[in-house]
Amino acid sequence: MTTMTANDLKNEQGRAQANKVAMVFLFVSFSMLFATLFLGYAVFRLTATDWPPTNLQALPLAGPFVSTICVGLSSLCYFLSQKNKAYSQLLMHLSTLFCALFLGTQFTLWSDLKELGIFANTGIFGSIIYGFTWIHAAHMVMALISLLWVDFRMIFKGAKELDTLTGKNVGSFLHFLGVIWLIMFVTIFLI
Amino acid sequence: MAFFEQHIHPKPTTFLSKYIFSYDHKVIGKQFLWYGILFLLIGGLMALMIRWTLAYPGQPFPMFGSFLFPETGGAVPPDTYAMLFTMHGTIMIFYAITPILIGAFGNFCIPLMIGARDMAFPLLNMLSFHLAVVSGLFLMASLFTPLGAAAGGWTSYPTLSTLIGSPGVGQTLWSMAIFVLGISSTMGAVNYITTIITLRAPGMGYFDMPLTVWGLGLTAVLNAIFLPVLGAGVLLLVFDRVFGTTFFLAGAAATSGSGDPVLFQHVFWIFGHPEVYILILPAWGIVSDLLSFFARKPAFGAKATALSMTSITILSTLVYGHHMFTTQMSPLLTQTFMTLTMTISIPSAIFFANWLGTLWKGSIRLHSPMLFSMGVVFVFGLGGLTGLYLGTVTTDLYLHDTYFVVGHFHYTMAASVLLGGFAAIYFWMPKMFGTLMNEFWAKVHFWITMMGLNGVFFGMMLVGYAGMHRRLYNPFVYDFLEKLIPMNMFITWSAIIMGLAQIIFVVNFVHAVFFKKEKASDNPWEVGTLEWEIPSPAPHYNFKEIPVVKCGPHEYGNPNLPAGKDFQFQTEELA
Fold first, then answer.
1. Which residues contact B237 (CB under 8 A, 6 or more apart)?
2. pTM for this one?
3. How far apart, in Å, do the first and last CA atoms of chain A sit?
4. What are phi and psi of B525, to 5 degrees?
């Protein structure tokens, strides 16, 4: 069994610190991307005389609501798997599953929108809903790939994989995307 | 202070691991340098074609005009002219200046100057370069598409850049290239910031860092914050072009409910104005250091210079509206943006005065890096002062979209940054490649470049003040501009002279890198920063032992120094 020297410990803590700094700036970058989208949305929404435009139906709420539940549960399961080592494997599988389900519900949403006659080229209303959900979903695909990677490694390395820097970063990314979706759900679908 | 000590990686042995998939920040820096120089030549050639068209409208471009444009007998056609100025601007800003100043010298200098063995995330660093290559390929591929490359200007305003203005795939490739390059630069920025915060050598506080690192660090902060803004804009532009969304389409162009073309201008300039500082901050930092090194005295007000650069970084985020005074902005907003823009003059004046203070009564050594640095002081002074006219609403309304704007931003973004880049190349050449470039030819290169660029950019400001608009294929169809043809010929010949001077640089550079036998000493310029304490060229591990810093980077003239030595290494402690 190898023992950790004081220097090794310092280096490990240092790497964790570097990792935190990098993640902070990475999230600043991601936030700016989504903030720009929301800025555009705010401009269109606040200057529109009717929203949604008079010839279009109101958006379906059931699908986006299920999406919100899925992304929330995915985040929650990941969080709990980091806290509860005994069930971490099961919770991790659930987190990945809910993330995949979220993406499935997005496809359902796009299909529902088409049935309502709302397409990407249906003026700015359709552009915003499709554009925003596409960009968010693309990020969720990255999150799903990362979750599958962590999940796969956990099969061999167990719960300690969640304590690695990769494990922590994937969790942060998932929670971040959950928050972004929540903002989208409230601002685009609810109000 | 270093949070942790990086291991010494084994030396790469194969061609692929050494030159293509290298994790070494120095190799990645050199990759960015070659990449930037290649695009500099392409962008420069495009500039000569633009200038030729303005001096000799309708006449064949010399030498290879008939090969490139056989259908017009060698003359640049109007639609190609629009592509040329679009691609020239895009290439020079994103693919030449950015890779050289930020990619090459950011990568090369940051770890060496702060006493680290590599960047905090070497793999991310390598991927950043490879993504930049992918982006470059996208951009160059657009030149060979059926309707040609993007032609909506480097700003790519809708509706010029939507399917209505640019129906070909070239503009889509342009947008994708910029998006991919944005990801690459953001990866680099996160790496730079983390490296500077966590890997500084023990004893090195923020104010002990060379000003070069300050400039590069602040640039990285701006990149991390504002590149995603442009990323969002071009992504929506791609959606408009490919999927038929209508974010930037208005009126009849949008089928139901309108988008807003001006929204893209807001998004573009929220990024675009900080971009000016993204480009220039590294050059400011480099010049601030070099002036001190070659004046053989401490940088005057170094802390104030660092803080001024920080203030400018913050203020640069609040002034973008001055690019849009003519978009029917409310007077309240124009005056607010004007006031904020003028506020930037205060920190700019502080560090400019500090540069002069550094030179004052110095024992100036006029080596090539110093000549180029003093060139930056001159051209930035001129470029900065002419910016005041464009930041003021009343004068901007007259000068907007004229060649005065082109001359101004070339002085600040092109001349200053280019001269700063040359200063850096001549200065760090021994540490990068182990040789010095020929000083005589370096000085010849400087003087001809300096004369050429002033002829070009000052001339542009003159014709712009006389009312000549930018982006016109043949402005001389207007009677009032006909008299400006001789002036335009002078500008073009100045550009040709400036272009020819770069052959001197290329030959000197290639000779020094590949053919020069005589190796440079470890510290040929007698400078005290950390990279000059290690062998030339820098070994792959940088520092065998992580250095412990005892003083700042500009310690000159300490009376306790031994006789014959006027500088102090950062690891030296004197009584």
1. B156, B158, B161, B162, B175, B247, B248, B264
2. 0.95
3. 59
4. -95, -5
Q: For B62-73, how does the pLDDT look when each residue is reduced to its tens digit (9 = 90+)?
A: 988 999 999 999
Do residues B217 and B204 lie in contact, with contact meaning Cβ atoms separated by under 8 Å?
A: no
What pLDDT was estimated at residue B253?
A: 59
CA separation for the pair B529, B115 (Å, rounded): 9
Single out the residue of B225, B217, B148 nearest to residue B182, CA to CA.
B225
Q: Is the pLDDT of residue A2 over 60?
A: no
pLDDT digits (tens, 9 = 90+) for B206-224: 999 999 999 999 999 999 9
Q: Which residues of A touch B (CB under 8 A)?
A: 7, 10-15, 17-18, 21-22, 25-26, 28-30, 32-37, 39-40, 43-44, 48, 53, 55-56, 119-128, 130-131, 134-135
Angle among Cα B167, B169, B171 to the nearest 5 degrees reads 80
Token pair recorded at residue A38: 């929301």
The residues, ordered by sequence, that sit 6+ positions from A93 with a Cβ below 8 Å of its Cβ are: A151
Taking the C-alpha atoms of residue B375 and residue B390, their distance in angstroms, rounded to an integer, is 23
User: Which two tokens mark B39?
Assistant: 């695009």
Residue B159, preceding peptide bond in cis (omega within 30° of 0): yes
Cα(A142)–Cα(A132) distance, integer angstroms:
16
The SS3 of residue B402 is strand
Distance from CA of B444 to the nearest CA of A (A): 44
Q: Count CA atoms within 13 Å of residue B54 on its CB side.
A: 31
Q: How far is Cα of residue A191 from the mean position of the Cα atoms in its chain?
A: 21
Segment B180-192, tens digit of pLDDT: 999 999 999 999 9
pLDDT, tens digit (0-9, with 9 covering 90-100), for A118-151? 999 888 889 999 999 999 999 999 999 999 999 9
Gyration radius of chain A's alpha carbons: 20
C-alpha distances in angstroms, B412 versus B95, B273, B415?
17, 12, 6
Predicted confidence at residue B10, as pLDDT, reads: 81
Distance in Å, alpha carbon of B514 to nearest chain A alpha carbon:
38
Give the tens place of pLDDT for each residue, B114-165: 999 999 999 999 999 999 999 999 999 999 999 999 999 999 999 899 998 9
| Nearest residue to B245 via CA among B169, B146, B158, B176 | B158
Burial of B274 (0-12, 13-18, 19+ CB in 10 A): buried
Helix (H, G, I), strand (E, B) or coil at B567: strand
What residues pair up with B402 in beta bridges, in sequence order? B469
Cis peptide leading into A52, omega within 30 of 0? yes
* B324-360 per-position pLDDT tens digit: 999 988 999 999 999 999 999 999 999 999 999 999 9
**CB distance from B259 to chain A under 8 Å?**
yes
The reported pLDDT for the residue numbered A87 is: 85
Q: Quick one: tokens of B301?
A: 């007000």
